[in-house]
Design brief:
There is one protein chain. By secondary structure, the chain is α/β, with parallel strands linked by helices. The protein has three domains: about 90 residues, Ribosomal Protein S5, domain 2; about 250 residues, Phosphoenolpyruvate-binding domains (TIM Barrel), CATH 3.20.20; about 50 residues. It is about 45% helix and about 15% strand. Strands 5-6-7-8-9-10-11-12 form an eight-stranded parallel beta barrel, surrounded by five helices. It has a four-stranded mixed beta sheet with strand order 1-2-4-3. A two-stranded antiparallel sheet has the order 13-14. Helix 4 links the parallel strand 6 and strand 7. Helix 1 packs across helix 2. The longest helix has 20 residues. The protein is elongated, with a radius of gyration of 24 Å.
């Protein structure tokens, strides 16, 4: 019979494993494994592998494992992917999901509409080595990516791996985001990740409000099923409770820019709107440059649409990970346009992004004067807030309070908001 593989192999691979599963009609389970940590964890690896096969309802077949330091959630994901590929090839109805016990509530960050999203670190969804230490870099958010960073033939395996990572990894104070795939594949992604304490879903290549509403409707449907007790996991202990899941559409085409406000206002779960400049400039038929002249209109349109819809405008990633001066210039320009954050593709970009979005001394001084005037007016019971001869309206006060909070955050620890 045919063998079905998942994962990666080779001496250069770390924190991952390769598995090969050959289904059989009889004869029980045969297991062969070798590991770079055989002396310490060989028996545990074999025990976890057999438990995973049992949970998947596999009673017969041959399983081969080459381990390069994979944690249990990775080993489990690779085995499940190989087994499900075998089941799909033989038109066998797949068994239930195999879920490790959930991360403890004390290790979680609560999803909130209002929070700082200055930096969002992209992590390839099929590369566990990048996930393990992501929280140590203190981004405001991590993005487990199921879209562009995952090859078409590995979407199924990445989906299982990301599901397991969300369930068991502690990303520190970072908001937990997942970029799903467009269309029907993205809806399958939602089935896997929404039950696992994800805070925000990024919707790529968005060109209409209908696409946002389709994702929002599916998220709500999954949550209703969870509340009804349908958590199809083999290991239910420590099961996660459904929490609020926010949405952030990504506009990446000329049509998406034209419909930016429609997209940003399509569902109450939307908390931000961001732009993908690599795809956008390709759609225009031009080249992306560091100074960004070719995308100025689109970026300004995203800021305007987001503000009109009452959500946060978030800038695209900066693709040159070696040029920190150019990155800082890009961040300062984004801030001047009205953006509140930027994507990043390497941990070294996080500190620069945070520094660039930090309030200047003049911004901070003005914000403090506004907050002090507001506090004084509130204490007096005044219905009107003024600073000198100028009246101050509520949006100005809110922006000033946010600026002061951001400065206090930076001076305390430089850590993202919890």
């Amino acid at each position: 019979m045919n063998s079905f593989e998942a994962g990666r192999r080779g001496d250069a691979i770390r924190s991952d494993c390769w598995v090969s599963f050959t289904p059989a009609k009889s004869g029980g389970v045969t297991l062969e494994s070798k590991s770079k940590v055989e002396s310490m964890y060989g028996e545990a690896i074999r025990s976890d592998a057999l438990s995973t096969l049992t949970a998947l309802g596999v009673g017969h077949g041959r399983l081969e494992i080459e381990d390069q330091g994979a944690l249990p959630f990775v080993l489990q994901a690779r085995i499940e992917a190989a087994v499900r590929r075998a089941q799909a090839a033989e038109a066998v109805r797949p068994g239930p999901q195999v879920c490790l016990p959930a991360v403890q509530p004390s290790a979680r960050v609560t999803a909130r509409r209002e929070r700082f999203r200055r930096s969002r670190l992209y992590l390839p969804g099929n590369e566990p080595k990048f996930m393990l230490s992501a929280g140590l870099h203190r981004p405001d958010a991590v993005i487990l990516d199921l879209e562009d960073s995952v090859a078409a033939g590995e979407k199924d395996a990445a989906r299982i791996l990301v599901r397991n990572a969300l369930r068991v990894l502690d990303f520190g104070t970072a908001e937990r985001m997942v970029r799903i795939n467009p269309g029907s594949v993205g809806l399958l992604d939602l089935d896997a990740v929404v039950p696992q304490n994800v805070h925000l879903i990024l919707i790529p290549k968005c060109e209409s409000g209908d696409e946002v509403r389709a994702v929002a409707d599916r998220v709500r449907e999954i949550q209703r099923d969870l509340l009804a007790g349908d958590d199809a996991c083999v290991f239910p202990e420590g099961a996660l409770q459904p929490g609020e899941v926010f949405l952030m559409p990504i506009v990446e085409t000329a049509l998406g820019i034209e419909r930016a406000y429609e997209i940003a206002s399509a569902a109450p779960e939307v908390v931000g709107l961001t732009i993908g400049l690599e795809d956008y400039t390709a759609d225009l038929g031009t080249q992306r440059t560091n100074d960004g002249r070719e995308s100025f209109f689109a970026r300004a349109a995203v800021v305007n649409a987001a503000r009109a819809a009452g959500v946060s405008p978030i800038d695209s990633v900066f693709s040159d990970v070696a040029d920190m001066d150019a990155l800082l210039a890009s961040v300062l320009e984004a801030k001047s346009l009205g953006f509140e954050g930027k994507g990043c593709i390497h941990p070294r970009q996080i500190e620069v992004i945070h520094r660039g979005f930090a309030p200047s001394s003049d911004e901070l001084a003005k914000a403090r004067r506004i907050v002090e005037a507001f506090d004084l007016a509130t204490a007096r019971g005044d219905g009107v807030v003024s600073l000198g001869s100028k009246m101050i309206d509520a949006p100005v006060v809110k922006r000033a309070q946010r600026t002061v909070r951001l400065f206090d955050l930076l001076t305390r620890s430089g850590a993202p908001e919890e």
